[in-house]
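Feature request, filed as a ticket because there's no other form

It would be nice if the structure record came with a short human-readable summary line next to the tokens. Right now we just get the raw output. Example of a typical job, pasted below so the devs can see what we mean:
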Amino acid sequence: MAELTIDAVVFDVLGTLVDEPAGLRAGISAFARASALEAAPGTERLLLLWQRHIEREQRRIVDGDRPYLPSDALDREAAEAVARAAGAEDPAAVADPDAVESLARAARRLPPWPDTVAGLARLAGRFPLIGLSNASRTALLELNAHAGLRWHQALSAEDARTYKPDPAVYRLAVTVAGLPPERLLMVAAHAWDLRGAQALGLRTAYVARPVGDPPTSSDRFDLYAEDLADLAGQLGVS
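Raw output as currently delivered:
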């Protein structure tokens, strides 16, 4: 730890601090009930459809194959795709636009992991905390409020008009902190996210989550933590 000198901590939000699949499952289940879609495909199949749509479209935007759209618009597209798939086996089913809109907003109603709120409060007593999310500014506001997340600053990829792992998103945190990249610690449950931060010179900490992207044998992150309590301990925060 002697060689790791950190002046601020940057957190990914989706998947790292909030249980994104759990929130989306709840939204999909509520949509199916509200729409009386008895023959709807399983929730897990619809969840995978949502996740693949978001991942694919964000990647297209990062690669320059599609103009930038904020996460709200992509969530609406995903919700419409899920609604179509849910009603595919019921020709008489017509999705209520209000129900689809409510489904899209499920992406903002995500529960925190059990250690998240206490872990952030503990770390906030020692370090400036910066949230850095692919969620839009509006979505991030609702996410923070719903999950009770504590920040000193919350940054949206919308300000860079692209998505992680584009370097422009991580640069937002570097600019706001006013520090050299190596004095910032990027915390995420996704190895791909940490690689993106690492490429810009940030230090990195992997936090294990059931829904994350685990490191490969070739990854070399600065810290590996079981949860936020473990991370705080490794950073010397009592």
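Something like this underneath would help us a lot:
The chain has a mean pLDDT of 93.
The two ends are 15 Å apart (CA to CA).
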